[in-house]
Amino acid sequence: MIDFWLAAGLLLLIALSFLLIPVLRVRRAQREEDRTALNVALYQERVAELQAEQAEGVLNAAQLDTGRAEAARELLADTEGAEAPRESRMGKPLPLLAAVLVPVLGLGLYLHFGASDKVELTREFAQAPQSMEEMTQRLERAVAAQPNSAEGLYFLGRTYMAQDRPADAAKIFERTVALAGRQPELLGQWAQAQYFTDGKKWSDKVQALTDEALKLDPKEVTSLGLLGIAAFEGERYQDAIDFWGRLLAQLPEGDKSREALQGGIARATEKLQASGGKVAQVPTVKAGALLKVRVDLAPALKAKVQPGDSVFIFARAVSGPPAPLAAKRLTVADLPVSVELGDADAMMPQLKLSNFPEVQLVARISRAGQPTSGEWIGRSQPLASSTTTPQQLTIDSPDQ
Q1: Which of 29, 90, 210, 390 gets the most CB atoms within 10 Å of its CB?
Q2: Does residue 85 or residue 275 have the better pLDDT?
Q3: For 75-134, what is each residue's pLDDT tens digit?
Q4: How many CA atoms lie within 13 A of 28 on its CB side?
Q5: What is the bridge-based pairing of β-strands 337-342 and 326-331?
Q6: pLDDT band at residue 223 under the 50/70/90 scheme
Q7: Predicted confidence (pLDDT) per residue in 230-256, tens digit
Q8: CA nearest neighbour of 349 among 124, 114, 154, 84
Q9: What is the pTM of this model?
């Protein structure tokens, strides 16, 4: 912030110069006026001396006229080039008062309406936090500076949950929903925070939130996991198996949560069988979408690109939001390359490949590293998000 305040101080000095220069000019004009008055007084004194000498008979009339003319010439020579005094309607005190009030008033207005806190936050976020507490403090200040940022509120709520502060998280997620709308991901997070706030007691409010989330998205993972936990603790083991089974089907292979879920399903199965119950078949749920695509560069373009140029490979909905549903970033040096785009690569939890029936594959080369614009591009024809056949995509056209 030191360089910021130095720049502000420099601008303030420039502004003060416009106020103080007129004051200095007035003082210079005053000095000129004082010197002229002195010259006039000397002229009048010289003329009085000449008249006294004439009265004593020392000078005659011709000599008196000659002496008077000589004194007049000296007066004109002394006052020649002096500017005529200007009248200032402002007076002297007003510019000086303004010179004092301008920096004070400017500083007060900046502290009230300015964004010094946001500038400082930007500098802080450029460096990695040293602890979870430091990250939380940064997010709290960011939310205070931008209270209408749904993204900032969302991350703060997740941080509160990681710190075992569900009551604070529930309030934050409620504010996030009010700003961003009743998205299933946010409703699930709110329901989870409220459940732990209530001491792991199921309530009508939590039930309503999870019902709404699953109605909007039957595969909303937080709600499915929460319902499974509540069912297990309520000794409704079959319901727990069902909910966790549905959640397990949404997670990609290699996800660290799969092992914990499978262990939970196994424990629920043991308890159900120990109580004399029989495990019903877990309902199968369609797995998340997974598209396989091989990306190559047209031979005519190989001499026009550089190995370090960024390559963005993504899928976007044919009928839906313009934001990519799944994306990966490589370089020209990696081409040709085969990649997989699935729900695990979703840019946002509520925008998954499996949520849209038809998508388009796009590969873009951007020397500036901008995913939204570049030099060359390749596009596929629309295809179903459930497609399992490997696709071929060639970058061969100028990006317009």
Answers
A1: 210
A2: 275
A3: 566 555 555 555 444 455 655 566 566 666 666 665 555 555 555 555 555 555 567 787
A4: 9
A5: unpaired
A6: very high
A7: 899 888 889 999 998 888 887 766 667
A8: 154
A9: 0.47
| Residue 327 near residue 337 (C-beta atoms within 8 A) | no
Tokens of 30: 């005053």
pLDDT tens per residue across span 290-310: 899 999 999 999 999 999 999
Residue with tokens 């990006």: 399
Tokens of residue 263, six digits: 């262990």
